[in-house]
Design a protein that fits this description.
By secondary structure, the chain is mostly helical. Helix 1 crosses helix 3, helix 5 packs across helix 8 and helix 9 runs antiparallel to helix 10.
């Protein structure tokens, strides 16, 4: 059962999503909110603290200050969803194979849309991320960061906020697996080469080739991850 502050936080969040509380609008003070929701000020403070921690609200100090609404973005909501997905995967409620299938459905469609819709600046950014990744193959941490950014940039180029929300969630779940699958320099080189091929297909507007390359890329990732996992399992045994 939800606590009082969780109930109040949920009501305020619903009002933001419904557009009743718009981005930049100032919330009433604690006394007025307490009267509106029929709770004490301490409950209101906790509800606002939770929503602030999640990024739904921000507090400004000084004259003209107060608690203000942040507009929810696809990436922000995706981070919230990603935390839930990571919890379910960690608890084995959702399997890695299910995530792999979902990622393939999502990213193959995304790269096709990116090849159709990416503007010149987006094409350049995708290409630059691929090239920077290739230049960073001797720096595993930087390579892994650029690897994730590359896939996110492709989804941003779809101009579809639902796909961007989903990618923002998925990347939190698969980041560790992506790093494990690219644990060696040879594997990072292979990933970097594939990224460049995908970037070129997007720049050329060849959505069919982009889809084929992304499908192969994701399946190679899965095979590499399974191989690494098996080796770790054998070492633990």
């Amino acid at each position: 059962m939800a606590t009082a502050y969780e109930t109040v936080a949920g009501r305020i969040q619903s009002s933001i999503l419904a557009g009743d509380l718009t981005s930049g609008s100032r919330l009433p003070d604690e006394d007025e909110l307490a009267q509106q929701h029929g709770v004490g000020r301490s409950t209101i403070r906790e509800a606002l603290r939770v929503l602030g921690g999640r990024g739904w609200l921000q507090t400004a100090r000084g004259p003209g200050g107060g608690v203000f609404v942040n507009a929810p973005s696809a990436q922000f909501v995706g981070r919230e969803l990603g935390a839930d997905l990571a919890f379910l995967v960690g608890g084995s409620e959702i399997t890695f194979d299910e995530m792999r299938e979902a990622r393939e459905v999502h990213e193959v469609m995304a790269v096709q849309l990116a090849a159709r819709r990416a503007g010149p600046a987006e094409q350049r950014r995708i290409r630059e991320l691929a090239e920077r990744g290739r230049a960073a193959i001797d720096d595993a941490d930087e390579f892994n960061r650029l690897n994730i950014e590359f896939h996110l940039a492709i989804t941003e180029a779809t101009h579809n906020r639902v796909l961007l929300l989903w990618m923002s969630a998925i990347r939190q779940v698969v980041a560790g697996a992506m790093a494990a699958a690219a644990a060696t320099r040879k594997r990072r080189q292979h990933v970097a080469d594939q990224h460049l091929q995908i970037a070129r297909a997007i720049a050329a507007g060849d959505h069919d080739l982009a889809a084929q390359l992304m499908t192969r890329h994701l399946r190679d990732f899965h095979a590499d991850f399974i191989e690494v996992s098996d080796r770790v399992g054998e070492g633990a045994g």
